[in-house]
Amino acid sequence: xxxxxxxxxxxxGMSAQRQRAELLTENLANAETTRTPEGxxxxxxxxxxxxxxxxxPFAAVFQTEMDAGVQGVEVSEVTEDTRAPQKxxxxxxxxxxxxxxxxxPNINPAEDMVDLMSASRGYQGxxxxxxxxxxxxxxxxxxxx
Length: 145
What we know:
By secondary structure, the protein is an alpha+beta fold. It has helices at about 5-30, 55-60, 110-145; strands at about 45-55, 70-80, 85-90, 100-105. The protein has one domain (about 5-145).
């Protein structure tokens, strides 16, 4: 495995964590949304990660020289929460049903904030790995001078 392949793996991890963070911030922003264009309350979304064969611009040029089978990560799908919404008694709310209950999303802001911190740490870990690889490449170039 070349150092450039490792850079591609870290880049795929950064991209996946960025997509996860975007979904989590969307969930937090819509924690109180009771009406969507699809009808009903907002549905919590979550990213599903899977491993994926990693290709880099360097691998495209030097495919025969590089090891095949380098695995990165990608978001394979975005799932929506299928649980029944939370019901709150708010008879004056415009979205209240005939009994005065309003359907709210199943979003726990504390849980999503912890997940957002986890996504941020994952992103930072990939940045650290890329920095270490970059330093190794620079030291290798210095040795070859």
